[in-house]
Write a structure and sequence with these properties.
7-stranded mixed sheet, about 120 residues, 4-stranded antiparallel sheet, mainly beta, 11 strands
Length: about 120
C-alpha cells in the first residue's frame, strides 16, 4: 500500500489549501478502513485534521471543522483536503494516512510541506 500527497508547497494567507492523496495497493472503499489527513507544524506534535471512512462518512477536528472539507474520487482512488482561509499557523507538513478501524494507523504518505506566506 502506498499513499502519496500532492499539492502546492506555498499558499498565500486567506487563500485555500488543496491537497490530494493518491492511494495505490488498496481501495479507499475497502471495508473497515479510514483515510485521514494529519499535519505537523514546525516544532510541534501531530494534529489530526479530518477523515473519511470507507463508506464515505466524514469526521473533522472541531478546531478546524469550519474551514475544512474532505472529499474523495473513487474512480481515481484519491481523497482530498481543502482548508480555507489559511494563515501562517497552517504551515505544516501534511500527511495522508490509512487506519484500520480500531486505531491501527498502518500506512503513511511521505508528507508534503506546505508554507503559508505572502
Amino acid at each position: 500500500v502506498q499513499l502519496r500527497e500532492s499539492g502546492p508547497g506555498l499558499v498565500r494567507p486567506s487563500h485555500t489549501l488543496s491537497l490530494t492523496c493518491t492511494v495505490s495497493g488498496d481501495s479507499i472503499k475497502t471495508y473497515n478502513y479510514y483515510w485521514h489527513w494529519i499535519r505537523q507544524p514546525p516544532g510541534k506534535g501531530l494534529e489530526w485534521i479530518a477523515n473519511m471512512a470507507y463508506s464515505g462518512a466524514t469526521g473533522y477536528s472541531p478546531s478546524l471543522k469550519s474551514r475544512t472539507s474532505i472529499s474523495r474520487d473513487t474512480s481515481n482512488n484519491q481523497f482530498s483536503l481543502q482548508l480555507n482561509s489559511v494563515t501562517p499557523e497552517d504551515t505544516a507538513v501534511y500527511y495522508c494516512v490509512r487506519e484500520l478501524r480500531g486505531g491501527h494507523y498502518d500506512y503513511w504518505g511521505q508528507g508534503t510541506r506546505v508554507t503559508v506566506s505572502s
